[in-house]
Design goal:
328 residues; alpha/beta; Rossmann fold; Cytochrome-c3 Hydrogenase, Chain A, domain 2; 2 domains; five-stranded parallel beta sheet; two-stranded antiparallel sheet; 10 helices; 13 strands; 25% helix; 14% strand
């Protein structure tokens, strides 16, 4: 059996809520089938108070071996590096202290969600709690742990970034670790099985993107890149290839991708539903797209936009169906 301990630091608990929405299989069935034994999880376990404290003590003292430590939420280091802005009730010690002690015992350490990975929403604005990710402070390597920190297996923290993170990403990571495999990671410590994709891949609005047929309001079904802040062409994630609960994603639900899998997504310096522009062109261009090429492509695409696509883009549903073609 693979032992797992889950700690919730400074965050909203949304990544646990997301994981509980896993289907085919559900999270409990998944853990059982993968041979993962949950020592303790604050939302799933029945142990509380003295019983929970005993479990944490046993792991921290090395009396119980720990294979996987999952941390959800950023770690608050304030005030003045004491971590006492977030205390673990009944222990007299900060959550930061417990994370540090238990991480030193774990074979693998997993940051669940962008807060645990990079600081996320918890670190937004002035960050008065001095919240950081486990091994990153925003986009900079070195958070609660140093840049070169390694778990007992000699490997870095796995950053399952997302706000909240996709239940499939958590499930696949845990199954890999339980089977003795370590997921390949990208430059920000994210598993490449989802980080090698863009949110743009599989987006149902791709036909509108191809012709730069853009929505002006959130209720319209055109591409949201030009006017409504969507950066799915720059954001990593297989959200539209592996839809949430089999059917959903932000762009499928009519909301722009805000790149929640990336460090510092929480402070974009503009409203999430606005696209900053220079000379009429979006400041953020699609990944790997040279600016001159994008400008030329956008001009040609707009000039070639079929009437059907242009009219549908600015409607809240399909108003002009595709032309019927007689088979040859």
């Amino acid at each position: 059996m693979t032992s797992l301990l889950w700690l919730q630091a400074a965050g909203c608990g949304g990544c646990t809520m997301s994981l509980l929405c896993a289907e085919d299989p559900g999270v409990l069935e998944l853990l059982e089938d993968a041979g993962i034994r949950v020592l303790w999880h604050p939302a799933l376990s029945v142990e509380t108070g003295t019983e929970a404290r005993a479990i944490l003590d046993d792991v921290a003292q090395g009396r119980v071996e720990l294979d996987i430590l999952c941390v959800e939420g950023a770690v608050a280091r304030g005030p003045a590096g004491t971590g006492r802005f977030q205390m673990l009730s009944g222990t007299g010690e900060s959550l930061m202290h417990w994370v540090e002690r238990i991480a030193a015992r774990a074979r693998h350490v997993v940051a669940v969600g962008s807060c645990a990975a990079y600081g996320g929403v918890t670190a937004a604005g002035g960050n008065p709690s001095d919240a950081v990710g486990l091994q990153y402070d925003g986009a900079h390597a070195g958070g609660l742990f140093a840049r070169g920190w390694r778990s007992r297996s000699g490997l870095p923290v796995v950053n399952i970034a997302g706000c909240p993170t996709h239940p499939g990403w958590v499930a696949e990571t845990l199954v890999l670790l339980a089977s003795g495999e370590f997921p390949a990671l990208d430059g920000y410590g994210r598993p490449r099985f989802y980080a090698d994709h863009l949110v743009h891949h599989g987006c149902p609005r791709n036909e509108f993107y191809e012709y730069k047929a853009s929505a002006r309001e959130l209720s319209e079904i055109g591409c949201m890149m030009e006017n409504l802040g969507c950066i799915g062409t720059q954001a990593v994630g297989d959200c539209n290839i592996r839809p949430w609960n089999g059917v959903g994603s932000c762009t499928r639900g009519g909301y722009p991708c805000i790149n929640c899998t990336a460090p510092c997504f929480e402070d974009p310096a503009h409203a999430f539903v606005e696209t900053p522009k220079i000379a009429g062109f979006p400041v953020g261009l699609p990944t790997d797209m040279p600016k001159a090429w994008f400008m030329a492509l956008a001009s040609l695409s707009k000039a070639a936009t079929p009437d059907r696509i242009g009219r549908n883009a600015r409607a809240d549903r399909i108003v002009v169906p595709p032309t019927l073609r007689q088979p040859k």
